TrEMBL record:
It comes from Limulus polyphemus. It comes from the Eukaryota. This is IQ and AAA domain-containing protein 1-like.
Length: 113
C-alpha cells in the first residue's frame, strides 16, 4: 500500500478517536450507574471502540516512514493502549471476572467477531 493509504487510515483513526472521546468525556458529569449490566455495556462499548482505534493506529505506525509522523502516531497509540487498559480494569471491577464475552455487543455494532 502507498503512503497515502496510511495517511488516510490515520485521518480516519483520528476522526473516530475524536468521536469516541466526545462520548467518553461528556461535558456533564454522569451519576454512578446502579444497574451493573448497563454500566458494563457502556464500558464495553467504549472498550471495543478503543480497540478498533488502536488497531488502525498500530497499522499506521507499522507502515509509516516519516519519523515525525511516526512519533505522533506512537504517542496516540500509547495513549489509546493506556485507555484500553483502564477500561479493561474497569470491566473487571464491574463484573469481577477476567474474561468477558462481548459477542452480542460486537454483533450489535455490526462488526465481525
Amino acid at each position: 500500500m502507498s503512503h497515502n493509504t496510511y495517511n488516510i487510515l490515520w485521518a480516519e483513526a483520528q476522526q473516530s478517536l475524536k468521536s469516541t472521546l466526545v462520548n467518553d468525556l461528556s461535558s456533564e458529569p454522569q451519576l454512578p450507574e446502579r444497574d451493573q449490566q448497563v454500566a458494563f455495556q457502556r464500558v464495553a462499548k467504549l472498550y471495543v471502540n478503543y480497540i478498533q482505534i488502536m488497531r488502525s493506529l498500530e497499522a499506521c505506525y507499522d507502515q509509516m516512514v516519516h519519523p515525525q509522523k511516526r512519533r505522533v502516531v506512537r504517542q496516540l497509540l500509547d495513549a489509546t493502549v493506556g485507555r484500553v487498559l483502564e477500561l479493561k480494569s474497569e470491566m473487571v471491577s464491574i463484573e469481577c471476572s477476567e474474561y468477558h464475552f462481548l459477542d452480542d455487543l460486537v454483533t450489535d455494532m455490526k462488526l465481525v467477531p
